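G., the chain you wanted modeled:
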Amino acid sequence: MNNIKEFKFSDLYKIGSGISSKPEQAGHGAPFVSFSTVFNNYFLPESVKDLMYTSEYEQEVYSVKEGDILLTRTSETIDELGMSCVVLKDYPRATFSGFVKRLRPTQSDVTYPKYMGFYLRSKFFRKTMTNNAVLTLRASLNEDIFSYLKLYLPDYDTQKKIGDFLYSLNEKISLNNRINAELEAMAKTIYDYWFVQFDFPDKNGKPYKASGGKMVWNEELKRKIPEGWEVGTVQDIGEIVGGSTPSTDEDENFQKNGIPWITPKDLSMNVGNKYITKGEVCVSRRGMEKASLKMMPEGTILLSSRAPIGYMAIAREPLTTNQGFKNIVPNKGYTSIIVYYLIKNLIPLIEKYSSGSTFKEISGGVLKSIKLLLPNKNQVTSLTDILSPIFKKQNLLELENQKLTELRDWLLPMLMNGQITIKDAEKELSKSF
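Predicted structure as tokens:
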């Protein structure tokens, strides 16, 4: 067992609040760490994309330095409160949001930043944090909480070994994400070149529009389109299928390893990925029948239709969804790859046609009627052949990241408690890949 010691959080870190900025300061100036950046990252990214115009005084008071821990301070829900993001280097001139708290270490040999990045996101600590949060109209992180929150830490050298090992897994996950982002940019560029700019190869292998391919005026779209292309609606490229929710008052409707059932929240947690297999909750066969859920096949395009509109994913395996979706099951020769981009390009229009007083929603009837340009079927087949290897590679990298994430989260408590050693962890890693 590791030699675990108890510490008061407030004895190891000094707490500070973020900057209260005005809208006109945003978008220019020095680097700025936002709520979303903290929420979505174990560690602060190498470069901070958001900007805020700040004075030298503000940059000193609200500085971001190596070893700092940034925590989300307020949110609509307890689950989003106190999410940590650890800083691994100094960020000159950077400041951080007023919706974030900064914990600056008062020591240099008790807490190892890479270890703290994982410890503070562990289920054990997250439970401690949410149990002590204040919930009024919004969840809020009261500074007093740190006067009685405890940290249970092994010695510094042990933290370093564990932190470095787990960080190496995170780096592999990050590398895969960067590769996938580059693959996505490549695939989208090719798609746009073919089906937005209309420079798909003509019969001589030359760019169609740029080489003088015939374009004809379309009265419905009020623009020219390639000869042989047609105008249709979303229902021409696939069957639109909604979802529903079994009664949550009946436990029998849900099952730990049952039928995959996706909610918009699942897609919000899947941002950056193209595929999805299952969500946090599964339904039972009974729940599926009670809610008249329809099992949708592999390759279905999931589209969140409310709260919010526009989250998308491709079903990796057969699954179901709740009522917050309008899903498209490709048909009539339109492959998942092409339907994915056809729908993605329609998101601004889908949002425009949405309605509702409490929150915006796109109805199935309206979605079916939205017009779009239908590519020639032969070109659909040809482009699918080109993009398929990219989509396949993205899927494999996403699956690898799932394994790495599951392995990291499985190893984390056992490494912290001394149940296994780093050598044991390395063996588990080698067995998984």
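The chain has a mean pLDDT of 92.

Shout if anything looks off.
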